[in-house]
Amino acid sequence: MEQPDPTIHQPVRLKIMAALKPLPAGEALEFVRLKAVVGATEGNLGAHITTLEQAGYVGVEKDFVGKRPRTRVSMTPQGRRAFDAYVGYLQDIIGAAG
Amino acid sequence: MEQPDPTIHQPVRLKIMAALKPLPAGEALEFVRLKAVVGATEGNLGAHITTLEQAGYVGVEKDFVGKRPRTRVSMTPQGRRAFDAYVGYLQDIIGAAG
To answer: Which chain B residue shows the shortest CA-CA distance from A13?
Structure first.
């Protein structure tokens, strides 16, 4: 791997993936919760989630709780593999830096 | 720190800093050696070194060995502090991802 996966290396997307990774497989995080953790604007977060979704790294579910629309985001198995590879790449570089 | 230091987070600059960090303080790496380690083109590497130099993170020395021009690059104390903070930030994010 010559460079870190650009889909994950972008700072906001890195935070999104790091926030989703600890969740058990298939479990999702509500958009509003992710927004608080990542500290991005709604539009910015939405755009980066779409990028991750198009890459196959996250899944997005939209439903209603009563009358309130709800959006939940979860990491896909492919996303987990990509994030593990990304972390391994960074640890190689940073590890070598001692 | 809300996001990783963009001066370091850029993939080529990250590799440059990681290559320089293990060197004893003040010791420098020749441009051609850095080029091999980082795997960037001469122009690309030169541009990123200039960015790091302008940020105060690296120092650049140019001299001659006989008739051959030589360029050497070393990390500044400020660069070491910035890189340590950058690594700490990433480890927090990646560490939290478990």
So the answer is: B3
